[in-house]
């Protein structure tokens, strides 16, 4: 579905900034372009005060996605944080920072609501990313956070979007598919990846094992398992080469799902006529 402020043209930039995480929480989910295109987490929570985009997410519904039709700030304050969560917030951008000051959302945000959201995000004990246009309000309140800027296509033409992050860039990513500053860079990386995978798969087994032992031994066991699965489609078997402390027994490979227990109490999905799933809060979500 098309949605004002949707990330259909910029979800790649945003996903390529995301660090590893077990639980993904997206507020002001709107069209869900980021959620639908990123590598799934163990489970995800989609929050929006407008039920319409949440209904749209029912199409091709992923059972690991919990939809919450409620106010973003109120929901974030109710969650119980267990570690391993990433929050991505994409509220309506500050009105004065837009090229056109004409309201375009059913639930717009006032400057006071932006302040309330940012204050809440500053207190969240998790990894946090928030999108917006640069403005005094965000620069002041998020002055200690890292900021990434990129060009994006909007209804008003090209604009410089910003993403503020409360974590350093360690180089690790949850989803490596979209790395690259633009389409040309992503295609170059994709072609290089295809060449390397082809060479690896065509190598004699013993040569490939030696190469993988050396390569995988330079990273953590978790990174090694992920890299192996990305190339060969599954984790190494007990007979496959291991390195860097990689183990393949079920106890070591499995990890218990992360939980945000307060979110689990929400209805799994809003349905037409379910008035109890709708919040009366007036705060807006895109």
Structure description:
The protein is of the alpha/beta class. The protein has two domains: 186 residues, 3-Layer(aba) Sandwich (Rossmann fold), CATH 3.40.50.150; 71 residues, no CATH class. Helices cover 33% and strands 15% of the residues. The chain contains eleven helices and seven strands. It has a seven-stranded mixed beta sheet, with no helix packed on it. α5 links the parallel β4 and β5. α4 runs parallel beside α5. The chain is globular, with a radius of gyration of 21 Å. The two termini are 13 Å apart.
Low-confidence regions = 237-259, 264-286
Number of strands: 7
Mean pLDDT: 76
CATH topology of the largest domain: Rossmann fold
Morphology: globular
Helix content: 25-40%
Largest sheet: 7 strands, mixed
Structural class: alpha/beta
Quick one: CATH superfamily of the largest domain?
Vaccinia Virus protein VP39
Strand order of the largest sheet: 3-2-1-4-5-7-6
What is the number of helices? 11
* Name of the CATH architecture of the largest domain: 3-Layer(aba) Sandwich
What is the radius of gyration computed over CA atoms, rounded to a whole number of angstroms?
A: 21 Å
- Count the domains: 2
What is the terminal-to-terminal distance?
13 Å
Briefly, what CATH class of the largest domain?
A: Alpha Beta
Note the run of SSEs as H and E: HEHEHEHEHEHEEHHHHH
């Amino acid at each position: 579905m098309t949605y004002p402020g949707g990330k259909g043209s910029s979800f790649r930039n945003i996903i390529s900034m995301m660090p590893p995480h077990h639980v993904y929480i997206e507020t002001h989910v709107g069209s869900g372009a980021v959620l639908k295109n990123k590598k799934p987490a163990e489970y995800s929570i989609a929050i929006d005060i407008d039920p319409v985009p949440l209904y749209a997410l029912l199409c091709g519904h992923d059972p690991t996605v919990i939809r919450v039709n409620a106010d973003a700030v109120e929901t974030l304050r109710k969650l119980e944080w267990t570690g391993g969560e990433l929050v991505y917030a994409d509220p309506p951008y500050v009105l004065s920072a837009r090229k056109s000051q004409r309201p375009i959302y059913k639930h717009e945000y006032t400057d006071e609501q932006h302040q309330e959201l940012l204050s809440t995000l500053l207190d969240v004990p998790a990894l946090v990313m928030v999108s917006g246009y640069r403005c005094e309000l965000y620069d002041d309140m998020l002055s200690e956070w890292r900021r990434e800027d990129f060009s994006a296509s909007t209804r008003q033409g090209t604009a410089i979007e910003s993403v503020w992050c409360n974590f350093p860039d360690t180089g690790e990513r949850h989803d490596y598919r979209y790395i690259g500053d633009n389409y040309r860079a992503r295609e170059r990386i994709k072609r290089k990846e295809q060449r390397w995978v082809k060479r690896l798969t065509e190598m004699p087994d013993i040569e490939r094992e030696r190469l993988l032992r050396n390569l995988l031994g330079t990273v953590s066991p978790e990174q090694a398992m992920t890299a192996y699965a990305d190339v060969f489609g599954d984790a190494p078997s007990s007979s496959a080469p291991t390195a860097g402390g990689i183990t393949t027994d079920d106890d070591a490979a499995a990890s218990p799902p992360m939980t945000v227990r307060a979110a689990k109490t929400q209805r799994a999905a809003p349905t037409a006529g379910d008035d109890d799933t709708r919040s009366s809060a007036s705060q807006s979500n895109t």
